[in-house]
TrEMBL record:
Its EC number is 3.1.3.3. This is phosphoserine phosphatase. PROSITE patterns: ACT. Residues 1-60 are annotated as: Disordered. Keywords: Amino-acid biosynthesis, Hydrolase, Magnesium, Metal-binding, Serine biosynthesis. The keyword Protein biosynthesis does not apply. Belongs to the HAD-like hydrolase superfamily. SerB family. It catalyses: O-phospho-L-serine + H2O = L-serine + phosphate; O-phospho-D-serine + H2O = D-serine + phosphate. Its cofactor is Mg(2+). It comes from Streptomyces lasiicapitis.
Length: 464
């Protein structure tokens, strides 16, 4: 059995703080004291012009409407990262009794950018606060910028999407084109962070102000032209919900077409391969082609089943994908137009929750050239996705389907997220999302799981 799991990530994990926190919106304001809304302040008013007393600050400044115009300070710190910066900044600010409205921090290659949005200090104190923060920053060799303003962050536009870009490598011109296309659809990029640098560079853009579907359509065209993979999903709580992942087997979970492995033992691989290729292109009815190919195996000794099981090569990243999904509480299944003689073995070896395929009929130690039971074809795969989802108690919109062939299309479209994996063009174009790098674990990034999280999980649990 060839080892198919990619090598362990060679680099050290990204420093703590490299991933900025998810925006959670403004906290619910505490009821402000009964008080008339402050007269609308002049647009250019400085902090000194707005004598908002302590106590009224927090509840009012976090609220909507008139409260949004209360004076605030944006404090930005930039420089070489080292322990104690965050504590140092807020310790300095604490002397001025300001309240924290927002904090964002990112560390890239050892450089920290820390932004704190705080309420303005009591009247007359801003100058002193500025001097003290600059003095502290200089003492720890950092740069500080303090900008007076009003209110909280501008509210994000309606329509929230997450755009994952996979590049191998990710080129500057591709990034520029994707960003321009997002802007072109009316979207605003609110946040960007790296999900992974191995085995591909994966970056996630949080976008607001545009609907998911037109954004997906616009970016799919751009991605194909650029040679990168782009997935667009609606942002929201459902993305974090427990889900079910259902995969095709041949040329998805494994690198092989199982019937071709059998055909090699039966000495009819060329005839079988020709039929398989045509079927995958959608040129042949799947059931007819299945019967035609299986018929060519008639008389093959049952010992070939064990041989084929040992010949199957998992797709790179398959073990990582399944192991990580299982640890995250996902249920994982396979559906195959191939054969239970192989999928049952994969189910046991990989710890899958569900597996369904066609069954080769075996009589007196020989393949009869027939299959038994209900045929798993294009419609059958979608039916099985629904059945697995029902058994797993997972709504269909929280399922993910992965496949490469024409007979996977119904399943891909029925799932909440359908991923065409190194698929034929007609499949790629019809699916929600396409992955065109040969690493199955890149699907994790489409689910918002970072490489760092994958590796952290591996460090705490035994490898399989
Ligand atoms: Mg396939």
């Amino acid at each position: 059995m060839s080892a198919s799991t990619p090598p362990t990530h060679p680099d050290a994990p990204t420093p703590e703080g490299a991933r900025a926190p998810e925006p959670e919106g403004t906290p619910t304001p505490t009821p402000a004291p009964a008080r008339e809304a402050a007269p609308t302040a002049a647009p250019e008013a400085t902090a000194e012009d707005a004598p908002v007393g302590q106590g009224a600050h927090l509840g009012q400044s976090l609220g909507e409407g008139a409260h949004a115009s209360l004076p605030t300070l944006l404090v930005k710190i930039f420089g070489k990262d080292r322990p104690g910066i965050t504590a140092g900044l807020f310790d300095t600010l604490a002397a001025y009794s300001v309240d924290v409205i927002d904090i964002e921090q990112v560390v890239t290659r050892g450089r920290i950018v820390l932004c704190a949005l705080v309420t303005a200090p009591p009247a007359g104190m801003e100058g002193d606060l500025r001097a003290t923060v600059h003095s502290w920053a200089e003492s720890v060799k950092l740069q500080a910028e303090i900008i007076s303003g009003r209110g909280d962050n501008r509210p994000r536009g309606l329509g929230r999407s997450l755009v994952t870009v996979l590049g191998h490598p990710l080129k500057a011109e591709s990034t520029a084109a994707i960003a321009a296309r997002i802007t072109g659809t009316g979207g605003n990029i609110d946040r960007i962070f790296r999900l992974a640098k191995y085995p591909v560079t994966a970056v996630e853009f949080a976008v607001s102000g545009t609907e998911t579907e037109p954004l997906r359509t616009a970016l799919a065209t751009e991605a194909h032209a650029l040679g990168v993979d782009v997935a667009v999903v609606a942002a929201g709580l459902h993305r974090r919900a427990q889900r079910l992942v259902v995969m095709d087997v041949d040329s998805t979970l494994i690198q092989d077409e199982v019937i071709e492995l059998f055909a090699a033992h039966a000495g009819c691989e060329e005839e079988v391969a020709a039929v398989t290729t045509a079927a995958m292109r959608g040129e042949l009815d799947f059931e007819e082609s299945l019967h035609a190919r299986v018929a060519l195996l008639k008389g093959l000794d049952v010992s070939s089943v064990d041989k084929v099981r040992t010949e199957v090569r998992l797709t790179p990243g398959a073990r990582t994908l399944i192991r990580t999904l299982k640890r995250l509480g996902y249920q994982v299944g396979v559906v195959s137009g191939g054969f239970t003689q192989v999928t049952d073995d994969l189910k046991e070896r990989l710890g899958l929750d569900f597996a369904h395929a066609n069954t080769l009929e075996i009589v007196d130690g020989k393949l009869t050239g027939r299959v038994t039971g209900e045929i798993v074809d294009r419609a059958g795969k979608a039916r099985l996705l629904r059945r697995f989802a029902a058994e797993a108690g997972v709504p269909l919109e929280q399922t993910v389907a992965i496949g490469d062939g024409a007979n996977d299309l119904d399943m891909l479209n029925a799932a909440g997220l359908g991923v065409a994996f190194n698929a034929k063009p007609m499949v790629r174009e019809a699916a929600h999302t396409a992955v065109n790098v040969p690493f199955l674990d890149t699907v994790l990034y489409l689910l918002g799981i970072t490489r760092e999280e994958v590796e952290a999980a591996d460090m705490h649990l035994d490898h399989d």
